């Protein structure tokens, strides 16, 4: 049975997409939590390294138990509250193992086939950037568009966020932000709408969702961060 009103503290940073995953899950589950911002521009303190020897954010303290790694934190939360949320079916549900496998594949496809070309595009200029962006769009068309055939609007026909959106949402919202703020060509968004219409509709539903675009997400600060990172 899900624990009642757990004591949760999230060590986080507002610029981190990995931390954003944990915020989306906590907000979606409507769990109250305390947060502590970790300054990742400086070496981590000994106190923080004692909690998370890797020194990365996020780290979650859940009733005093330390859990690290964003996918592990969010899956733990989804499993703990599986009876009261739609994030992830329990393995014991009749379609649970299959749906969990499908969601894992979707997230794997996004992270391993799509994200690399987008990261590359942020470091490139002109023709090289256009080529990386073309790879990004092509990977979405090939890998993700077919997996969203029954999105409604979220993964697998769900009307509510699933773990698929929790784990990819931070990257989706950042990808669209760059075009919106002139850091990537506007044609990127029209290309996605034309070549990957299911993905585009799904992505816009993800971006509009309050658990994704509320809370720790600050569009203007994020745009300023990317502007400085990309030297724009
Ligand atoms: N695999 C980790 C990645 C976490 C990660 O790379 N976090 C970055 C912030 S986006 C970080 O803490 N960087 C600090 C550093 O590398 O010193 C997760 O999913 O939690």
Domain module tally? 2
**What is the CATH C level class of the largest domain, in words?**
Mainly Alpha
Q: Assign the CATH architecture of the largest domain.
A: Up-down Bundle
Judged by helices, strands and strand pairing, the structural class is: alpha+beta
Strand content: 5-15%
Going across the biggest sheet, name each strand in turn: 2-1-3-4
Q: Roughly how much helix do the residues carry, as a percent range?
A: 55-70%
- How many helix segments? 10
Give the mean pLDDT.
Answer: 95
Task: Tell me the overall shape.
Answer: globular
**Heterogens:** glutathione
The tally of beta strands, per DSSP, is 4
CATH topology of the largest domain: Glutathione S-transferase Yfyf (Class Pi), Chain A, domain 2
Gyration radius, to the nearest Å? 18 Å
H and E string: EHEHEEHHHHHHHH
Q: What is the straight-line distance between the termini?
A: 50 Å
Residue stretches low in confidence (pLDDT < 50, at least 5 long) are: none
* Main sheet makeup: 4 strands, mixed
Structure overview:
- This protein is 56% helix and 7% strand.
- The termini are far apart.
- It contains 10 helices and 4 strands.
- The chain has helices spanning 17-28, 46-51, 70-80, 96-123, 126-144, 163-180, 187-195, 197-208, 210-213, 219-229, and strands at residues 8-12, 34-37, 59-62, 65-68.
- The chain has a 4-stranded mixed β-sheet with strand order 2-1-3-4, covered by helices on one side.
- The protein is of the alpha+beta class and 232 residues long.
- The chain has 2 domains: 8-80, Glutaredoxin, CATH 3.40.30.10; 96-229, Glutathione S-transferase Yfyf (Class Pi), Chain A, domain 2 (Up-down Bundle), CATH 1.20.1050.10.
- Bound molecules: glutathione.
- Glutathione binds at residues 16-18, 40, 55-58, 69-71.
């Amino acid at each position: 049975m899900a624990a009642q009103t757990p004591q949760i503290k999230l060590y986080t940073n507002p610029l981190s997409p990995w931390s954003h995953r944990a915020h989306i899950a906590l907000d979606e589950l409507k769990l109250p939590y305390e947060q502590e911002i970790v300054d990742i521009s400086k070496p981590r303190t000994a106190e923080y390294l004692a909690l998370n020897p890797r020194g990365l954010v996020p780290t979650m303290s859940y009733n005093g138990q330390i859990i690290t790694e964003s996918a592990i934190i969010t899956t733990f939360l989804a499993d703990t509250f599986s009876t009261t949320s739609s994030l992830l079916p329990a393995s014991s549900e009749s379609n649970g193992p299959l749906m969990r496998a499908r969601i894992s594949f979707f997230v794997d496809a996004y992270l391993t086939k799509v994200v690399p070309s987008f990261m590359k595009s942020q470091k490139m200029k002109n023709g090289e950037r256009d080529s990386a962006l073309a790879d990004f769009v092509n990977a979405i068309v090939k890998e993700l568009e077919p997996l969203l055939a029954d999105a409604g609007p979220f993964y697998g026909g769900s009307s509510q966020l699933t773990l698929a959106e929790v784990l990819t949402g931070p990257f989706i919202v950042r990808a669209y932000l760059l075009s919106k703020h002139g850091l990537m060509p506007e044609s990127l968004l029209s290309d996605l709408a034309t070549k990957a219409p299911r993905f585009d509709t799904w992505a816009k539903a993800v971006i509009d969702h309050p658990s994704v675009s509320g809370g720790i997400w600050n569009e203007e600060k994020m745009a300023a961060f990317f502007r400085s990172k990309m030297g724009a």
